[in-house]
Structures
1.
Amino acid sequence: MYLSRIRLKQDMQATQLAQLIKDRKNYGLHHLFWGVFKTNPDKKRDFLFREEMAKEQNLGGRRLKADPVYYLLSMEQPENEHAFFDIECKEYNPKLAMGDILSFKVRVNPVVKRNNKRHDIIMNAQYNWLDTQLKQIGKDTKGTKTDKKKRLLNYAQDKQITVWQEQIKQGCFSDKLAQKLGRNELLEWALKTEVEQTVLLWWQAQAEKNGFELVHNKHTNTPVFQSSAYQWNPLPEKNRKAGYSSLDLTGKIAVNNSDLFYNFLKNGVGKSKAFGCGLIMIQRCYM
């Protein structure tokens, strides 16, 4: 495998890249990155990529803070010369053994299948939780997410509020209870707790089949894990409603099967890999 860091050439601007991507329609970057290889662009994709900003990478030189930086994991070595990009490439063959502790970061598109259709797990978790809370107080579950929240806030009694408090207490946002929270804030933090737990369970499912396990904080006995930067990415070129969600995960993991984990790195995780999801960045660390 090869790991490359790809940046715009010094005489190019991010606006020019945006036009290049637009010209290639739905899979702009994916199509553009085919151009760094010598092989037939019609073959099956065998690379993963991730976009970051120069300001996040502490890169020197003339780079603007908002300039994009791309990391590309590929089976084939990219060409050194390219019309648009400066490419730094090295062989990537991490030596992994059982018990190795790694920090990681990955951008994912986590989905769940329901009625043979894929659904964003975060929106799915939010709607399921809101519906469950409404059913417990005998109220209608119809409407938008905003409708459901308003209905809960209007009709939830003290018993229901206590349930929300207990859920927050048992989750990763328990410190919020040190503040004086109103009904609306308690609802929001309980909902966020449910979402974070759902995402954590999704990541644990990846761990069980891909040769690693989550590392726990020795003081709190909770997983060293965090999700952030959830967003919807529209694809208007495909159709008005098309798009995908993305979410950044970070934390620490321990390898328990090096062969499985190596394949996990090679193949990436989740859906929407053609849009920059799935590439797992790792670094050795110590507890």
2.
Amino acid sequence: MSNGLPKDPDNAGSVLGWGVVRLAPWSLHGVYPNKDEAESEAKKAGTDHEVHYGTHKPGTDDFVWTSLVQN
């Protein structure tokens, strides 16, 4: 799922993309290149899944995003 995603310039070995996650219990459904694709996959995965833009380390279930809103 992380093929073709841009490299994260701030985290060596990581990529940037739209993650589909379930918070509890934790599950990374996948990371996608655009929000529309991620939202479509989230609907397929179930109502307990959310979409966030963040950084992902391929080959792991590591996905980090921030919910901070900048003014």
